[in-house]
């Protein structure tokens, strides 16, 4: 089932619902019980049998979703877990409880996984596809194991503990860099071959796309979490990466504030966070500088191994230590809860120490396209 | 499960217990089968359910109870063997076939079953139904899952929340 049909499905449901919603107002109670405007909290004994699943006791729901989650460990069937999370709030909370962060599970499940720390041991492999005609880059999670054929696909090895939040694509001349500032030990920049769009992407789960825009003083890559129909006004716009002319210094901007306070549990948060159209529009224009990456040139200029220095504003030093945890992980990848976030940014910043990490890339294959 | 038989001195024929459903139907069943329920096992060990007075089960109707007992009777021999270490492959295959057919039923019956299994603490039955439900919702969109499980229509608020999440979760389908 395609995403479009899913969305259509949901919208259709909405259409029929608004009509019904109207009737409900007139009748006072949808089920036509005789109480007029009085809403009962619970229907009396003869409950419509078929609606019971909505009230399944948590321990049973846990049992069901845990089974589903365990059986759908890999993409693309992993999306079935995501579908469960969209069923209703209770299911979503249950899914969030059951699905472990990539740091512990090594798996990417919800979009927010891209902003959560990666596994401390082990790697997550990705590859990149470029569409030359539209200057668009696509990042895919590699689904097939084993080394890909050189020249067709180059798998970027995410070093252990990569912070997927900071996956940003940097293209410099014909070489493509994938930035994975890993916050535990070092940052990793891996160069990889660009390969033509014709290459099959069946082996990959789409993660992010980036569209390159050349400006007089810089190059900008706007980053989206959808693959097509990308534009800055798109709600899927999640950030951008801006490089200087030489391609030696990059600044990463996020549409969410650093150390997003959205995860600070606030009662009633979900009840109003989705309705503010104004907020979501505002968020598309507002970005926050979350990290900076700079390269030292070597004798080869922009080619060859270069030392990279990465400063991440949102990751405290304590996260790098053994047993350290990453604070303030967002619960959503889209910046839609800005209204609640603004109040807490100031306190969050004070606890954050700039983290400078140096890294010499060791794995390079120079490519000529 | 041998304890009730020897302990109660009911030699020869297997000890029987009576269960009474919420609609006052009486079911007579072997204690070994009923003991698959952790809840009933305690009562039975205490000597309850025998003779004239049955064990009332106010949360389980007769249709569901007969289904539950069908499962229990089928699974009792294997359970009595302590997880069936000496069961043959044929026996296991037969049980598996039975299980598959057993849960091939309407979702409303499945719901009654999982609730009964939960109330009566019949672990095997509960996981069997949970697995079936997991299989049922696999590969379905959120709206299809709602329809499959007969959720009531979402309220406008729920719908807006679903839409908002689908915006983000649509990523999973890219």
Write up this protein.
The complex is a heterodimer of chains A (369) and B (174). Chain A has a 10-stranded antiparallel beta sheet with strand order 3-1-2-7-8-9-10-11-12-13, with no helix packed on it. A 3-stranded antiparallel beta sheet of chain A has the order 4-5-6, with no helix packed on it. Chain A is globular. In chain A, strand 9 (237-243) and strand 10 (249-254) form a beta hairpin. Chain A is of the alpha+beta class and 369 residues long. Chain A has 3 domains: 1-37; 53-99; 114-360, no CATH class. Chain A has helices spanning 3-27, 58-71, 79-85, 89-98, 102-105, 269-272, 277-285, 338-341, 345-350, and strands at 125-131, 136-142, 156-157, 168-172, 175-181, 187-192, 204-214, 219-224, 237-243, 249-254, 288-295, 307-312, 355-360. Helix content of chain A is 22%, strand content 23%. Chain A contains 9 helices and 13 strands. Chain A starts with a helix and ends in a 9-residue tail after the last strand. With 174 residues, chain B is mainly alpha-helical. Chain B has 2 domains: 3-138, Potassium Channel Kv1.1, Chain A (2-Layer Sandwich), CATH 3.30.710; 140-174, no CATH class. In chain B, 58% of the residues lie in helices and 7% in strands. Chain B contains 9 helices and 3 strands; from the N terminus they run αββααβαααααα. Chain B has a 3-stranded mixed beta sheet.
